[in-house]
Amino acid sequence: MPTCIDRIGELAIVGRMLVRKLTETAPFVAGDGSMLREILHPDKHAVDLSYSLAWATVKQESRTHPHILKHGEVYHIIKGRAKMHINNEVKEVTETDTIYVPPGAIQYIENAGQTELEFLCIVDPAWQPEIESVAKGQQ
C-alpha cells in the first residue's frame, strides 16, 4: 500500500508521523545571541508535546548572553567543545554530553573549540518569551 505524504509549509506529515528537516527550518538569532532553529514547539506544530526542541549554534570564540529561564532546560552537545556556565559553576562539555540547567539558574555557554558549537535545547514546559530574562549585571 503506498504511503501518503502531505507537505504543509515546513512540515512533512507521513500518516501520523511528523518529519521536520533541519535545513527547512528558518534560522534566527535568539534572545541569548545564539543562532537558533526551532524544530518542534507544541504551539506551532501539530505535536502532542509539553516541551520545545531547538537546534542552536554558537560561533567560534563566542558565547551566549547570560540569561535565566523559569523552566528547566536540557542541552545536548552535537558538535564542538564548550564551557557551560550555570550560576557559579563551570564545566567543560563536548560532543555527546548532556547538561541539565535547573529552573531559575543564570546560564550561558561559551564556545571553547576550534569549530562552530552545535547543540540541541529542550525546554519543558515549552519555551515562551515570558519565561526568559537577561541576567542583570551579567552582560
Question: Any descriptors?
Answer:
0% helix, disordered N terminus, single chain, five-stranded antiparallel beta sheet, 14 strands, Jelly Rolls, mainly beta, 139 residues
Set down the secondary structure blueprint.
Blueprint: E1 5-8, E2 11-14, E3 17-20, E4 28-29, E5 35-40, E6 52-58, E7 67-69, E8 72-79, E9 81-86, E10 89-94, E11 98-101, E12 106-111, E13 117-124, E14 132-134
Antiparallel strand pairs: 1-2, 2-3, 4-5, 5-6, 6-13, 7-12, 7-14, 8-11, 8-13, 9-10, 9-12
Q: What is the gist of this entry?
A:
The protein is mostly beta strands and 139 residues long. Helices cover 0% and strands 51% of the residues.
Radius of gyration: 16 Å
Strand content: over 45%
Give the % helix. under 10%
Average pLDDT score = 89
Number of helices: 0
Structural category is mainly beta
Intertermini distance:
57 Å
CATH top level assignment: Mainly Beta
Count the E strands. 14
Biggest sheet, in brief?
6 strands, antiparallel
N-to-C order of helices and strands: EEEEEEEEEEEEEE
CATH architecture: Sandwich
- List the strand order in the largest sheet: 4-5-6-13-8-11
Please state the overall shape, judged from the principal axes of the Cα atoms: globular
